[in-house]
Description:
alpha+beta; two-stranded antiparallel sheet; about 45% helix
Amino acid sequence: KYSLLRIMKTDYLNMLASLVLPAQILDYFLISGVEQTSEEIHIHLDEKMHPELSMTYILNPKVLWNL
């Protein structure tokens, strides 16, 4: 039961985060976590890697190679 309540709370916080953040942010970032304290809600984001960029370019510290 505790696990189910925790999942429901996590789903609720993720839904709240998606409502609070501008839609354009979610085009480029995924919500990776949401934590709640007594006074704040912390939203953690991970940047999305677009497939066209990941398949076309290889990053090198000194050079950007276009394949």
